[in-house]
Amino acid sequence: MRFRTFADRLGGIETATSRRAIVHAVADLLKAADARSLEAVVYLLQGQLRPPYEGVEIGVATKLLIRVLAEAYATTPAAVARRFRQAGDLGLVAERLAGSGPRSGRLTVQDAYRTMMTAANAAGRGSIDRKISLLAALLRRTSAIEARYLVRIIQGRLRLGVGDQTLLEAAAVAALGDGRKKAVVEHAYAVRSDLGQVVRLAFTGGERTLAAVAPRPGVPVRPALAQRLRSVEEIIQRLGPVQAEPKYDGFRLQLHRDGERVWAFSRRLENVTAMFPELTEGLRRQLRARRAIVEGEAVVYNPASGNFLPFQTTLTRKRRAGIAQAAARHPLRLFVFDLLYVDGRNCLPLPQRERSRRLRKLLSFGPDDPLAVTEAFTIDHPRQLQAYFDTMIRRGLEGIVAKRPDAAYHAGARRYTWVKLKRAYQQQLRDTVDLVLVGYLAGRGKRAALGIGSLLGAVYDSKHDRFRTVAKIGSGPSERQWRELRTLLDRGARSSKPRGVDSLITPDVWVEPKYVVEVLADEVSRSPLHTCGRSGDRPGYALRFPRMLGGVRTDKGPEDATTEREILDLYASQRGSA
């Protein structure tokens, strides 16, 4: 596929005025791509070069990209920076610098992709200069519209509003002939986590091939998610007898083993193997299988007292330096609660009780071992479930997870086969929610000097692949945290509302929807100011007195945030308990 054809079709997607039009424009692009370029086209539409678990990043920040443009178009970094301040978009700057000069038009998607991969893999002495040289030479081969989208891809800001849900529906339209077959593509993506590969399989093998996709060690499975219910009575009424387990405030991990090779993946599908050396070594020692995928919750604990430490302590492992010291100071225990694959057997379709039974047989455990199988009890009466919940709270845990014993593992889905019940707050809203930040408002009073006073938070509308506002968050962070938040958010600042954000409120600074924070509020109420749940003339929903807890949730991506449907369910549960 010619890169000019690719860029022209991206222009059509950018100017599409409805989600339906965007889906069909993306589907047309996928159908136009030849077999050799299809996977690259999908990755570039996702704003990446490879699946997230491979950790391939082009590593070109704004300042470096300004130098690339300066070299490509024989100007100075200062001149490019000046144009950038005026336009607010380096893609538009590149488009104008490229002008209408003649170009061969022979650049293909594969050529551009290979060059970007080479730049991403450049390392060691002189790697920065090599990146600049490679990308500048690539830009000189592009026309104006090609330069616009190439620079946005390099920067990771394609700005098309095409999320994974839109891509999945477009793939169903293009490869299977019907957007209503999206669930088939989505299931394969949840199991294999490589959308480029999944779209290729959809075109070459159709529904049967997608349905046969199974877990593979080294490739993370999208985690199953729990729903909320407000009481033990509702849980038993809805699920019947349950398998009750503790709910830990930890770091969710998948551990994979293929012989001596072991990987650890976060819930965002990042390869975090280097962060958890004691857990990966524990898996080699404790697991009675050569090839397996298990899932659990990593919790920092005090070996002297046996007490568990807060989630934020676990997150200190994200710092690359001092991991050995952190492991000694804050040892981890991984409470393993599920088995997804073992020695050639896909365990996802097996009932929960059978997966748990096999897991207990596979994992040996001594008092000093870092891996332990999570305790589980079959309970069929609300009074017993309440007693178990109360016991977990006294132990300092978050609450419980109740699971339907006969249910399969639903990768990447939030269903009522798993239900969480966390410690009851005094407020009506009994659980925290995870919101995506889409903007911030300048401070007033004491915060005027900080330049940031409140955050605009949104929930995820998975049906329409968009983010809808639900709260203005003005409390929780310390002064230091406010400063850090502003620095972080300014990296993704936008001069206009990001595509895919639905908001009636215009903040002082728009932000790309990528950062997730945990929020506690008193209750959910109706609101004419917010778009969450808004339909026609009916007002939306908002969180009352929201306050942020901790820092940015680096373990969660924007599509992992609380959904619009969950907010509506929380509102309904409040009314039911009134």
Just give the CATH class of the largest domain: Alpha Beta
CATH superfamily of the largest domain: DNA ligase/mRNA capping enzyme
CATH topology of the largest domain: D-amino Acid Aminotransferase, Chain A, domain 1
**Biggest sheet overview:** 7 strands, mixed
Number of domains: 4
Strand content: 15-25%
Number of strands: 20
> Helices and strands: which structural class?
alpha+beta
Average of pLDDT: 90
Rounded to the nearest angstrom, the radius of gyration is 25 Å
Based on the coordinates given, report the CATH architecture of the largest domain.
2-Layer Sandwich
Distance between the termini: 60 Å
- Into which percent range does the helicity of residues fall? 25-40%
Number of separate helices: 20
Shape descriptor reads globular
pLDDT < 50 runs, ≥5 residues: none
Brief synopsis:
With 578 residues, this protein is an alpha+beta fold. It contains 20 helices and 20 strands. 39% of the residues lie in helices and 21% in strands.
What does this structure look like?
By secondary structure, this protein is of the alpha+beta class. It folds into four domains: 3-155, DNA ligase, ATP-dependent, N-terminal domain (DNA ligase i, domain 1, Orthogonal Bundle); 164-211, no CATH class; 225-422, DNA ligase/mRNA capping enzyme (D-amino Acid Aminotransferase, Chain A, domain 1); 433-577, OB fold (Dihydrolipoamide Acetyltransferase, E2P), CATH 2.40.50.140. Helix content is 39%, strand content 21%. The protein contains 20 helices and 20 strands. It has helices spanning 3-15, 19-32, 38-45, 62-72, 77-87, 90-98, 109-121, 127-139, 144-155, 164-176, 182-192, 195-211, 232-239, 277-286, 311-315, 323-329, 352-362, 382-394, 479-490, 564-577, and strands at residues 225-228, 242-247, 251-258, 261-266, 291-300, 332-342, 345-346, 371-373, 377-379, 399-403, 414-422, 433-441, 454-461, 466-473, 493-494, 501-502, 509-520, 523-527, 540-544, 547-552. The strands form four sheets. Strands 12, 13, 14, 15, 16, 17 and 20 form a seven-stranded mixed sheet that branches. Helix 10 packs across helix 12. The chain starts with a helix and ends with a helix. The model has no long low-confidence stretch (mean pLDDT 90).
